[in-house]
Design a protein that fits this description.
Layout lengths: L1 H16 L2 E2 L2 H7 L3 E13 L5 E12 L1 E5 L6 E5 L22
Antiparallel strand pairs: 1-5, 2-3, 4-5
Length: 102
């Protein structure tokens, strides 16, 4: 039993010292979140023809870290959350197809 406890203690110390993780919570303990601009395509209403209208809306959001676990492994590595901003082209006739309803 002592050997097991020592092994777990060594593994845990080594796990967090090298920024390896098992859960997203491990990464949140290791890294402070940062603010970044995040943009969304949102519905704004309808035009005179009854077609949806939309616009790009951006805001400041807290971006954290997630645990990316490798296939076949018990642990992973902390990586920043990937927040991809959509491309907004007002001339695209299908731009409002995937817009968010607020």
């Amino acid at each position: 039993m002592k050997v097991f406890i020592i092994a777990v203690a060594l593994f845990s110390t080594n796990l967090f010292a090298s920024e390896k993780c098992v859960t997203d919570g491990d990464c949140q303990k290791l890294h402070e979140p940062s603010q970044d601009s995040v943009c969304f395509n949102v519905l704004t209403g309808t035009d005179v023809f009854g077609d949806n209208t939309c616009a790009e809306r951006c805001l400041q959001a807290w971006i954290g870290y997630k645990c990316e676990v490798f296939d076949g492994e018990v642990y992973g590595v902390c990586r920043p959350e990937d927040i991809s901003n959509p491309t907004f082209d007002p001339n695209d006739p299908r731009i409002c197809d995937n817009a968010l309803r607020l």
